[in-house]
Automatic annotation (TrEMBL):
Residues 130-224 bind DNA. This is Two-component system response regulator. SMART domains: REC (SM00448), Trans_reg_C (SM00862). Residues 3-117 form the Response regulatory domain. GO terms for cellular component: cytosol; protein-DNA complex. One of its GO terms (biological process) is regulation of DNA-templated transcription. It comes from Serinicoccus chungangensis.
Length: 224
């Protein structure tokens, strides 16, 4: 099974998470500050990180940002008592694969760990085979992670790129918010959350609002 790093300074939470993940057969390492988390997560030593935001010495957002700056592809699940949409977007924007607000059920964390490990394995194995997507003047070079709109280069964040790729993969089709949450974020968000709408707004600003239509009460469609 996987080697999972648990970066959590609350002893009780760390103990429960550690016990739950070990019950699934995973090998775990527990650290209690951000510097130790960054060191342990670097260099391909672990398969997934459960990362608390409020760590001493270096907060979880900084750990995540530095991991992504170093091009560490390890999946990260953020765990924090802060559950606002802004904090969720901030974590995902900086490269987290998932986000759990405390208090959470360890069963939910175990399910998300299983999902993220599977998705990461599929991605590393090259689950999709196309190298370039081109729809309606937008061109995504998948291996190079570059985007051109009407032949002009455009900068997309990692999450915006994944969202654009999903929409363009299904150009002409309507994708619901739930489908986008599952395929881009890999988890369910309560109906009151507007994280999908926030990212659609970001993406429209960069590729052109006319290219992404809203189908009221259903979802979004990338126009051919």
């Amino acid at each position: 099974m996987a080697h999972i790093l648990i970066a959590e300074d609350e002893e009780g939470i760390a103990r429960v998470v550690d016990r739950g993940l070990r019950a699934d057969g995973h090998r775990t390492t527990v650290v209690t500050d951000g510097i130790a988390a960054l060191e342990a997560a670097s260099g391909g030593q672990v398969d997934l990180v459960v990362l608390d935001v409020g760590l001493p010495k270096m907060d979880g957002f900084t750990v995540l940002r530095m991991l992504r700056t170093m091009d560490e592809p390890v999946p990260v699940i953020m765990c924090t008592a802060r559950d606002s949409v802004e904090d969720t977007v901030h974590g995902l924007e900086n490269g987290a694969e998932d986000y759990l607000a405390k208090p959470f059920r360890v069963e939910e964390l175990r399910a998300r760990v299983k999902l993220r490990l599977r998705q990461h394995a599929e991605a590393m194995a090259g689950g999709r085979t196309e190298d370039v997507l081109e729809v309606g003047g937008v061109r995504l070079d998948i291996p190079a992670r570059t985007v051109h709109v009407d032949d002009e280069p455009v900068e997309l964040s990692a999450r915006e790129f994944t969202l654009a790729r999903e929409l363009m993969d299904h150009a002409g089709q309507v994708l619901s918010r739930d489908q986008l949450l599952d395929r881009v974020w890999g988890f369910e968000v309560t109906g009151s959350s507007n994280v999908v709408d926030v990212y659609i707004r970001y993406l429209r600003a960069k590729v052109g609002a006319e290219r992404i239509s809203t189908v009221r009460g259903v979802g979004y469609r990338f126009e051919r």
